[in-house]
Design brief:
The protein is α+β, with helices and mostly antiparallel strands. The protein has 2 helices and 2 strands; from the N terminus they run E-H-H-E. It has a two-stranded antiparallel sheet. The longest helix is centred in the C-terminal third of the chain and has 10 residues, at 48-57.
Protein backbone atom coordinates (compact mmCIF):
# COMPACT_ATOMS: atom_id res chain seq x y z
CA UNK A 1 0.00 0.00 0.00
CA UNK A 2 1.37 3.39 -1.02
CA UNK A 3 1.21 6.18 1.54
CA UNK A 4 1.54 9.76 0.37
CA UNK A 5 4.55 11.35 2.12
CA UNK A 6 2.84 14.76 1.90
CA UNK A 7 -0.80 14.28 2.84
CA UNK A 8 -3.04 17.29 2.15
CA UNK A 9 -3.34 19.74 5.00
CA UNK A 10 -6.85 19.93 6.40
CA UNK A 11 -8.62 23.26 5.95
CA UNK A 12 -8.51 25.59 8.92
CA UNK A 13 -11.29 25.13 11.45
CA UNK A 14 -13.97 27.71 10.55
CA UNK A 15 -15.06 27.95 14.19
CA UNK A 16 -14.08 31.19 15.81
CA UNK A 17 -13.59 31.37 19.55
CA UNK A 18 -16.83 33.34 19.92
CA UNK A 19 -19.25 30.57 18.88
CA UNK A 20 -19.33 31.52 15.19
CA UNK A 21 -18.90 29.02 12.36
CA UNK A 22 -17.85 30.81 9.17
CA UNK A 23 -19.37 29.11 6.12
CA UNK A 24 -17.70 31.67 3.83
CA UNK A 25 -14.39 32.60 5.48
CA UNK A 26 -13.78 35.38 2.94
CA UNK A 27 -16.34 37.45 4.88
CA UNK A 28 -14.58 37.04 8.23
CA UNK A 29 -13.75 40.50 9.52
CA UNK A 30 -16.43 42.08 7.31
CA UNK A 31 -19.33 41.71 9.77
CA UNK A 32 -20.55 45.25 9.13
CA UNK A 33 -21.56 44.15 5.60
CA UNK A 34 -23.75 41.29 6.81
CA UNK A 35 -27.41 41.17 7.84
CA UNK A 36 -29.26 38.53 9.80
CA UNK A 37 -32.19 36.64 8.34
CA UNK A 38 -34.55 38.68 10.55
CA UNK A 39 -32.92 42.00 9.56
CA UNK A 40 -33.08 41.09 5.88
CA UNK A 41 -36.77 40.24 6.21
CA UNK A 42 -37.48 43.57 7.94
CA UNK A 43 -35.56 45.47 5.25
CA UNK A 44 -37.81 44.13 2.48
CA UNK A 45 -41.03 43.90 4.52
CA UNK A 46 -41.54 40.13 4.59
CA UNK A 47 -41.32 37.34 7.17
CA UNK A 48 -38.24 35.27 7.96
CA UNK A 49 -40.12 32.32 6.46
CA UNK A 50 -40.40 34.13 3.13
CA UNK A 51 -36.64 34.73 3.08
CA UNK A 52 -36.05 31.08 3.94
CA UNK A 53 -38.40 29.98 1.12
CA UNK A 54 -36.61 32.22 -1.38
CA UNK A 55 -33.26 30.80 -0.30
CA UNK A 56 -34.55 27.25 -0.80
CA UNK A 57 -36.21 27.94 -4.17
CA UNK A 58 -33.61 30.10 -5.91
CA UNK A 59 -30.08 28.84 -6.53
CA UNK A 60 -28.76 32.37 -7.05
CA UNK A 61 -30.00 33.61 -3.64
CA UNK A 62 -27.10 34.91 -1.51
CA UNK A 63 -25.51 32.10 0.49
CA UNK A 64 -25.36 31.96 4.25
CA UNK A 65 -22.09 33.34 5.55
CA UNK A 66 -22.00 32.29 9.19
CA UNK A 67 -23.82 30.38 11.88
CA UNK A 68 -23.82 31.65 15.43
CA UNK A 69 -24.41 29.58 18.55
CA UNK A 70 -27.21 30.96 20.65
CA UNK A 71 -25.76 32.00 23.97
Amino acid sequence: MHQDPNPPTPPPDPRAGDGVVWLRPEYQGRQSELVTLADGARLVGVTKSAISNWRNRHANFPALVLLRDRL
